[in-house]
Amino acid sequence: MPNNSGLTKNEQRVLYGMVRNPTMSDNSLARFLKMKDSTVNYCRNQLEKRKIFQVVYVPILNRLGFELLCINFAEYNLKTLKDSRKSEKTNKIPISDDIFLRIGDLEKEFSVSFNKNYSEFFLNTQNRLERMGKLGLLSKNRKNLPKNIIFPINLSVIYNFFDYSQLLLHTFSIKSENGVKNNGDPLYFSDHTLYNLSEKEKAVFTALIDYPNYSIKEIAELEEISLNRNTVSKMRQDFLKLGLMKKIIIPDLQSIGYELLVYYHFRFRPDNPINDEAKGVLNSPSTILFFYNKFEAIILSAFKNYSEYKSDKVQKFSHLHSHEMLAESPEPRKYLFNNLDYFRKFDFRLLSRNI
Fold first, then answer.
1. Is 263 helix (H, G, I), strand (E, B) or coil?
2. Which of 40, 99, 265, 326 would bridge with 113, disulfide CB 3.0–4.6 Å?
3. Termini Cα distance of the chain
4. What is the three-class DSSP state of 296?
5. pLDDT, tens digit, for every residue of 121-142?
6. Pairing of β 287-292 and β 296-303
7. Do residues 325 and 33 lie in contact, with contact meaning Cβ atoms separated by under 8 Å?
8. Band of the pLDDT at 77, cuts 50, 70, 90?
9. Is 312 helix (H, G, I), strand (E, B) or coil?
């Protein structure tokens, strides 16, 4: 695959290594990639300087009292937006605390949220849609009314939660370190044991999410923390070890040559639910988000161009149709990166305050 990412080969390998192993130090990453320490350090600094990646601490919210993972989709009223700038209208919509990702283009938007229960989800959604309705933003077409898809976390499988490593491995034509395709981490949200954070733990937990690029020393010196570095370091290690949070690296796909983001919502027939073979087909190298239960699945995929998207779509739909698995044939929602607005981008700060 041609290199149109704007990155050198070494930068590609280091970016992949960081995404694959986000908690590794430069020394460990150098050993993993079989590169010099100085080369890894230089490439990481260059990638950081050019804002090629974003560091995020993801709270594993089902361990902390949250029950629902939700997708919210809406199409805009183009007539309303025609005479005014979309950003001026859409920026007036309050983004409730439950949403950590909300993106939109000229015609539509979708968001991903966590909620403690259905009542909380209903209130948050009601307030958001009521505001959009008053601004005249929502499509008048009955076929395009807002849709909300709810997945009970403990009754669903989070197969891939914004893990870009397989995507970069494929795109950069990097030889896998073990020769085996990484099919996501089905254990990501699979531990359902509730954990109660103490007040001190909650303060450090929230600070790590608020300031993911801060050193342990900087976190410890925050006014709301005021703990010694060893205590903060141990807390972070415990949070990661206990599976209460996970550090991930989000690459800026547009800056490295990606053109298209595609959202799928599949519904399966009750007499022919999703199986392991179908999961393998759906979790192709382009997949960056994939969660499902027996009867429906959500997938978010990224592509370098339209041709890649069409090829991937044909593989997915051919398999599902040939095995008579679909309850209905969905229409993929396509977003061009150069038309995307990020109203909230992997921001868990407000969610963490609701723990």
1. strand
2. 99
3. 44
4. strand
5. 999 998 888 888 888 888 777 7
6. antiparallel
7. no
8. confident
9. helix
Amino acid at 354: N
Residue 281 lies in a domain: yes
Is the pLDDT assigned to residue 151 strictly greater than 90?
yes
Q: Is 45 contained in some domain? A: yes
Other CB atoms within 10 Å distance of the CB of residue 285: 18
Distance in angstroms (rounded) separating the CA atoms of residues 177 and 33? 8
Q: Which domain holds residue 2?
A: 1-50
* Average model confidence (pLDDT) across the chain: 89
Judge whether 184 lies within some domain: yes
| Helix-strand-coil split of the chain, %, nearest 5 | 40, 25, 35
Counted domains in the chain: 2
Burial class (CB in 10 A: 0-12, 13-18, 19+), 324: exposed
153 SS3 class: helix
How would residue 334 be classed by pLDDT, with cut points 50, 70 and 90? very high
Helix count and strand count (H, E) for the chain: 13, 12
Per the CB < 8 A criterion, the answer to whether 164 and 288 are in contact is yes
Domain harbouring 271, CATH code: 3.30.70.100
Show the tokens assigned to 191.
């531990």
Residue 230 backbone phi and psi in degrees, to 5? -60, -40
Q: What is the 3-state secondary structure (H, E, C) of 2-15?
A: CCCCCCCHHHHHHH
CA-to-CA distance for 118 and 152, rounded, in angstroms?
A: 10
The token duo for 210 is 């608020």
User: Could you tell me if 323 and 86 are in contact, meaning their C-beta atoms sit under 8 angstroms apart?
Assistant: no
Contact 216, 233 (CB under 8 A): yes
Give the CA-trace dihedral at 25, 30, 36, 39, to 10 degrees.
-60
Give the strands of the sheet with 99-104, arranged side by side. 147-152, 68-75, 108-115, 99-104, 341-344
* 3-class DSSP state of 326: strand
Strand partners, 161: 289
Here the CATH number for the domain that contains residue 9 is 1.10.10.10
For residue 87, tell me if it sits in a domain.
no
Model-wide pTM > 0.85? yes
